[in-house]
Specification:
Chains A, B: This is L-tryptophan--pyruvate aminotransferase 1. Two copies of one chain form a homodimer. By secondary structure, chain A is α/β, with parallel strands linked by helices. Chain A has two domains: about 160 residues, Aspartate Aminotransferase, domain 1; about 220 residues, Aspartate Aminotransferase, domain 2 (3-Layer(aba) Sandwich). Chain A has eleven helices and 16 strands. Chains A and B meet through helix 1, helix 2, strand 2, helix 4 and helix 5 of A and helix 1, helix 2, strand 2, helix 4 and helix 5 of B.
């Protein structure tokens, strides 16, 4: 398993660098041409750049040279590297959106939710077991869970595979991703045995992606600025944690592995989350478009275009989502996930390979513990790349590998 | 060993939160009173705040809301999340100071050098060994090495203790810290067996702390903004890595554990490092005080005051450093380390306990694989705390635990 993980780690990096270089240079605005592949492998959330450029001054932040030198942000807090302003804005946003209960939870900030996954695994793994505790998730599952769980061949935990197959009478940890990455469906735990610890990854539980059907209240809930506002470059995630000992152990991991989290990113994230909350409140937002409405319309329009093309060419199919009442928008809506989970109608095909042959890079189903007939496609690219993707997809008329 | 690590992790966090709360509140300017302990346990480098407040506008940076949304910073680089401007300023600073060769090395940015230690251990650990590879360092060694090595009970590496005691005929990794944390001495590898990999931690190899006696050129060299400029809150470290495969594996770890490093911190660090380089070049720095000269004078003055007090009370002793020619300042100077490594003249005393009894918090020798008669004291606090420390130290006339 470890060798496999190593291969995967290498593959991840090589893929990242390779495909990244193909989308166009320096990480600034790409210039897709008919020759370069369009890279929708990652969920790089650049779709929201236009919104933020329209917001202007309100979302600008300045740092003087003598600011934030110290390791400490709030020495009185259990999470002593968490900026008080970020904590305040995280709590406010959850109150405004109504997606998660925060009043009885500790807030732990992390270098993206990736680090918080590791911190949560560390915190809930029993330390008295002879073997590492199994980490499971229902397939299709987020491809990073296996990478994180197996990265250092930990004696505390290891990847245990598809939660649907887990039937051992021993401690386990279940990652529950809802809405799910890659497929966008609402999820519940599937193992349901007495010795389990559950980590809820709620990165996509925001109104632009899915109807907010309840104010959830779990023991450990993970969120990230990346998918909420689009600021993936800031590497800010947060965990809402009910139990003080678990919260303390998560802080321990963060201290030993990185001695906390960038103060600049935290303060900027506080500013950005504040703008989003303000944008939802009429009295605070003269001239400021409601971010979630903006993003919801953007995503709905993209999904509509994609569904039209898939319907016409008849080779592929997309996941369908039920219409549900959203407590935030007060409307019945369908999910508009950050990723499209697309499959070949023909069972025997490797859809990642087919798309690659048509210069569309996406992540194949096998990486998610699923079948090569599935592929995950980011819906969060810039307009230019998304339109190029649609153009290329619509040009596929017969299934060949294209190689 | 793992249980011990866990205890240490808890101790670290509890210490951090507890002592932090004692230094005065929210992480901003503390207000030490005669009742509160002065916390010199951490090397929190707030001593340089005054310099940065004098620099003013030149070190200010502004971010607009639509900046740096993407995960990518430079898709063409092996380290694709490294901001090009930061890479440029790191290379420039090493050229200006002359402390390390950079032209034949890859630069990998990390969330502080803590993450780079983990990444380097991951990258150089052989993956084909039946047992985890031993990580060793010559005592007294930086207390975090053991914590990082044992944190997740990795099957790749584990803490192996004092390098002076390592005599196994098997692969090992030696951490060489020069100047050394805690004692400030120049260090070389001590094991010198054929199967070793060496990681050079050069966090303090800057002219304000030690004479720059050569332009070093090792396989893996770790640096951090925290100790160089004082911006610990930014969590930016960098590694200079000669071998491409090692560099790639370090990037792998960074991608899986945190998907890179805060763009805001990187861009601000680029700005700050740029100011420091400019401050060393007369033509670029009208009105800008040479940072290293400023910091060197500050440290020299603090060391002089401390040595005077220690000389008078006759209970303690301090490490002595040889005078060496510094290629940067073109003068013979002694080291003025970021930590004082102080001992009791009486062999039987626990100096950490003695100081604690006089409301001075510092880190005892046992944490560094040394004797309780030693203690590490940060020399990088703000003036107010440093002066309070001197005042309290000078009031100790007879050794009692003070409890």
């Amino acid at each position: 398993m470890c060798g496999k993980t190593q291969d995967q780690a290498n593959a991840t990096e090589q893929d990242s660098a390779a495909v990244a270089s193909e989308i166009g240079g320096s990480g600034t605005k790409p210039n897709p041409s008919s020759l370069a592949p369009v890279n929708l492998d990652h969920g790089d959330p650049t779709a929201y750049e236009t919104y933020w450029s329209k917001v202007g001054e309100r979302s600008t932040i300045t740092f003087t040279g003598d600011q934030s030198l110290s390791y400490f942000a709030n020495a009185k807090n259990l999470c002593w590297f968490l900026e008080p302003k970020l904590e305040e804005e995280i709590r406010r946003l959850h109150h405004v959106v109504g997606n998660a209960k925060v009043d009885d939870h500790f807030i732990i900030v992390g270098n993206g939710s990736s680090q918080l996954i590791q911190a949560a695994l560390y915190a809930v793994s029993p330390s008295d077991q002879p073997q590492p505790t199994s980490v499971v998730s229902a397939a299709p599952y987020y491809s990073a869970y296996q990478e994180v769980a197996d990265l250092l061949r930990s004696g505390l935990y290891k990847w245990g595979g598809d939660a649907y197959s887990f039937n051992k009478d021993e401690p386990y940890i279940e990652m529950v991703t809802s809405p799910n990455n890659p497929c966008g469906m609402t999820r519940e735990p599937v193992v349901n045995r007495p010795q389990g610890k559950i980590i809820h990854d709620l990165a996509y539980y925001w109104p632009h992606y899915t109807p907010i059907t309840s104010q959830v209240d779990y023991d450990i809930m993970l969120f990230t600025v990346s998918k909420c506002t689009g600021h993936a470059g800031s590497r800010i995630g947060w965990a809402l944690v009910r139990d003080k000992d678990v919260a303390r152990k998560m802080v321990d991991l963060m201290v030993i592995s990185t001695i906390g989290v960038s103060k600049e990113s935290q303060l900027r994230a506080a500013k950005i989350l504040g703008v989003i909350s303000d944008s939802c409140l009429l009295d605070k937002s003269p001239g400021l478009e409601n971010f979630f409405e903006y993003a919801q319309h953007l995503m709905a329009a993209r999904w509509e275009k994609l569904r039209e093309i898939v319907k016409v060419n008849e080779l592929f199919s997309l996941t369908e989502y039920p219409s549900e009442y959203c407590l935030f928008t007060k409307e019945f809506t369908e999910a508009r996930p950050a990723f499209a989970w697309m499959s070949c109608k023909s069972d025997m095909e490797d859809i990642e390979k087919i798309l690659r042959g048509h210069k569309i890079l996406a992540r194949g189903g096998k990486r998610f513990g699923s079948d090569p007939k599935y592929v995950r496609i980011s819906m969060l690219s810039r307009d230019q790349e998304f339109n190029l993707f649609l153009e290329r997809l619509s040009s596929i008329h017969g299934i060949t590998s294209g190689n």
